[in-house]
Amino acid sequence: MNKILKNSVLVLGLAALSVVASATTVHVLARQAQPSSSVLADGTNYTGSDAPNYGFQNAALTPRTVGSAPDLVPAAESSVKAVVHIKVQQAQQQEQRQMLDPFEFFFGGDPRSQARQARIAFGSGVIISQDGYIMTNNHVVAGSEEITVTLNDNRTFKAKLIGRDPGSDIALIKIEGKDLPTIPFGDSDKLRLGEWVLAVGNPFNLTSTVTAGIVSAKSRSTAAAGDQLEVSAFIQTDAAVNSGNSGGALVNAAGELIGINTMIYSQTGNYAGYSFAVPINIAAKVVSDIKKFGSVQRGLLGVAGQDVSAELVQKEGLKVNEGFYVADFAEISAALAAGIEKGDVIVAIEGSRITSFGQLQEQISRFRPGDTIAVTVNRKGTEKTFKVTLRNKEGGSKILKSSTQNGDARLGATLKELGANERRAYGLSYGLIVENLRAGALKNAGVQEGFILLTANNAPLRSIADLNKVIQAVSQLSGRGRSALILRGFYPQSGDVVTYSVSL
């Protein structure tokens, strides 16, 4: 079964590729009284008057001029200068874990042992400011201990991780430079099916590689990506993308950045005809939030449902054939508070038509908590527009700034207190989640991102302040030879309960 695979940034090998491209212009002439014939691409003749023999209406065609493919050379030459090669040194831990009964967690247990080994990975990035801000994929830099950026002119820089967003697979890094080449931002909303695009990156560690294709689909939502990402609304192209292209640029014929190459559709891990990019209108908002607030601010509509289908139209007696059907609401829902009801079909956001969940995600992702947007629904054949004030993940309307700066710097990670929805999902009353792991005590101990901390030296962690108190006490004892910090928690995805001994 075909599945979506994220571009692996680890170079596994190099395969020889052969690509043949051809462009054929077919001129269609208006039919006159006499049958007309055309020479097809394979050299055979097609006689228009044969059409009725197969039961089709042989209608006259309106004369039109078919333009040639655009000149992509200027776009290619300018964009490669602003696409960088990223080398990432990651720490890979092999842990001895075991599944524990939930009750056992609270009654002690032995720390788990870890063995660490280095891993080198590669990817791409796009310079978006002359002073060195670079956009890339989250999966390229996740777990990085050291990030090295090489420019198109072979200059090399050490990069700092500014922030990353697993929900969109976008990250922001920074190098110290001046007057660096950039790619101007385009408008991904204005992309049209069939439009020529270029994928620029470093596949198989081959730097400054350009491939061409067309836009195959927009607002493409993928089931596999949707399981991992909060925003799954991709630009689909047939531009060849392979391992190492992740984080590179998708540009239009004018040389404008319109997406960040992220995934491929493949059974093997190598390019098989389709690739997916995060639209720049989404990615730009993500990096802006990271730079301004320290984390991405997503406005939540608070609806659940499905795309309108022929079966759903018949089953529910809907009066519209496209849109997103509202079947239920979140516990705290902005849409419900505004007057939207179950059975409504969302057909527009701020005047932009909605025909799928992917489009709905794409439009909502542009807004922050507290923003008021116009949501148009079809209710039993009548369109109604509601003013909806979007909520944050806690159910409020305020911007949630990251509280990680209050954590001890020696830990080398972003720590976030579990929100109300997360506590309900895990059946907890408290806890801290590890994000943006980098070089530091936690990584040295083998802690991985996503780990939820519950206790430190048997003290419950209801806040980051609780953890800091324990760390302070441990530091005071360090002179007497007792400086170990014992952290216990679990990994939500696997359910593994793990104890770590952390040296400060």
Protein traits:
single chain; 504 residues; alpha+beta; Thrombin, subunit H; Pdz3 Domain; 3 domains; 6-stranded antiparallel beta barrel; 6-stranded antiparallel β-barrel; 10 helices; 27 strands; disordered N terminus
How would you describe this protein?
This protein is an alpha+beta fold and 504 residues long. The protein folds into three domains: 246 residues, Beta Barrel (Thrombin, subunit H); 87 residues, Pdz3 Domain; 100 residues, Roll (Pdz3 Domain), CATH 2.30.42.10. It is 15% helix and 34% strand. The protein has ten helices and 27 strands. The strands form five sheets. The protein has a six-stranded antiparallel barrel. A hairpin with a 4-residue loop joins strand 13 and strand 14. The longest helix has 14 residues. The chain is flat, with a radius of gyration of 27 Å.
